[in-house]
Amino acid sequence: MAKVTKDMIIADIIRIDEGLIPVLLGAGMHCIGCPSAQGETLEEAAMVHGIDADKLEEALNAFLAAKNA
Fold it and tell me: Domain range for residue 39?
């Protein structure tokens, strides 16, 4: 199973599973289609949006774990 880490680029995270998009949007990260998503890490984007990167990483991995269970 793939795992999301804070140092991954947003675009790469979406490539793992497009079902992660609603998780990102629900956390307040509305930059999914933004050009910055092509080169910004999860941690960098979280910082810009005032989101706890650790909690978001956990939520993304929880989604993947539940889907693969």
Answer: 10-68
